[in-house]
Amino acid sequence: MPCANAHDDLAEVRRLVLNFLRPKVWLFGSRARGDAAPVSDIALALLSEANDLSVVWLAGLRELLEESHIPWHVDVADLRKADMELKHAVMREGILWSD
Q1: Cys bridge to 86: 19, 52, 74, 82, which one at CB 3.0-4.6 A?
Q2: Is residue 1, in this structure, part of any structural domain at all?
Q3: pLDDT band at 37 (very low <50, low <70, confident <90, very high)
């Protein structure tokens, strides 16, 4: 069940992802647009400048997020492997996270 403080939970997701490795990370979707429903997931797009994000790395990040206290599903996409529609959505509405 989502807790009342969505802002703090989003900040925690941001901290976990940015500390896990150093890809570029965009928040996109309803949370970036500001029209999220109480049960909306958190959608992230990642881009590693060096190379593709490995399946093992992505699995580790997903496990880290699942084991956190975050009450929402966090959807993580590798932009290098994403289709054009997703890439356009991220570029159009995404918010680049930095530390």
Answers
A1: 82
A2: no
A3: very high
